[in-house]
Amino acid sequence: MNVVPVEFKRVMPEDMRKFMSEMYCRVGMSADRARLMAELLVDTDIRGVFSHGTRQSARYLRLLRDGELNPNPESSIVHQTPATGTIDGDGGLGHFASWRAAHLAVEKAAAVGLAAVATRNHFHFGAAGKYSRVISGAGMAGFVVSSHVRQLSPDQGIMSANGASPMSFAVPSGREHPLVLDMSTALALSGNADFETIFQRMPATFFKSLGLGAVCHALGGLLAGIQTFDEQGASWPAVNQGSFLLAVDIAAFAPREAFQRQMDDFISDVRGIQPFPGEDRALLPGALEWEREQSWASQGIPVGPDHRRDLAAIASEMGVETPF
Prior knowledge:
Layout: E1 9-11, H1 13-26, H2 31-46, H3 57-65, E2 76-81, E3 84-92, H4 94-112, E4 114-122, H5 129-137, E5 140-148, E6 166-171, E7 179-184, H6 195-201, H7 203-222, E8 241-249, H8 256-271, H9 287-299, E9 301-303, H10 305-318
Parallel strand pairs: 3-4
Antiparallel strand pairs: 1-9, 2-3, 4-8, 5-6, 5-8, 6-7
């Protein structure tokens, strides 16, 4: 899904933001919250992470319209120390609580060197990279995970414990793009793939995937408190997720300028080595997204036919005209 579509129509980011903002206002969200949602979702599209950008609005808006989520959550800090915090999402979309958590982590890390903030009592928070990049944008290293309530049964395979949980690291550089790893921990196999054959050929891949997903669930789920009834927001039925964010101030460990220079050299050196088979460039995570961000901001977002179909359907339900 997160590849540039072959067939597309370009939509300017500002037009998409206005479109998104209007739809979120239609389900009772305040203008300020609707603008923030639009900004976060469109910024995700601009990086080519279509799976977690504006296309998610189809399910978000229906849940909000149907009273499954709080359209105007008042995220609050329910516990904190100089280096930690816990934020309650008040039954809303996870974007609001996690956005606040990222900025709180940066604030605390600037004072004490590193900080961690957990969020709970909310729904999906979108792409984890939105929040790790808030941290790297402040000159810090960021680590973000999330998870959701799981009900495992004996008839499920062990990979069900992975849960497709997201994980993101973001590390700042100087003149080069930041190093941003933003991914699901699950393995996406094609529909006709023979799981047993693939597993026998590369078992370590599956064990690593399972382990990463379990860590996301332990930190972004259980540590955040999503399994506790009182923290699931009984009045908002769709609430089922939490997150965990860590900010590390580079200057607390190494001279900032020296670290950034070394990161620049590393990223630059990688471009000079041999790429993966079938690829024409050797790039580190975050490079393609950064390039798209630079060009699509002025050229427009390439919105594919399936993406347009999903947005057109929910726009019709909301009574809003599409920008394409």
